[in-house]
What does this fold into?
Amino acid sequence: MGIREEVERAMRGAERDSEGKISAEFAFPESSAVFAGHFPGAPIVPGVCLAQCALAAISRISRKKLSLRSIKKARFNNPAGPGDVLVVSGVPEWDGAVVRGKFDIARKGGGGAPDTRIAHISLDALADD
It folds into this structure.
């Protein structure tokens, strides 16, 4: 199973608010293939998987299959590991078949709200269909 499929399996749902902001939750079990070799004894979610989480959220809302074109900027603040509930949020902007956006990824805290920033990723993707 590839990264795209692992991310899709980890998604718990996605929604869009009235202002166009999307948010989605993800949780990767310890058995997930995303942790293979990254890193033995101290697994963390790879940065490429975090970017794929943003794409998966956009894809779920738009019902379009997307391919990553580029990561314009990425800042990784804290690691995320097995079982962490991650919240991805941002506003995708469409220009024809191209979608761009800046997305925050945070760990969901005990009270249900995102409380620890994991990463901020700016990316471009292309709709495959």
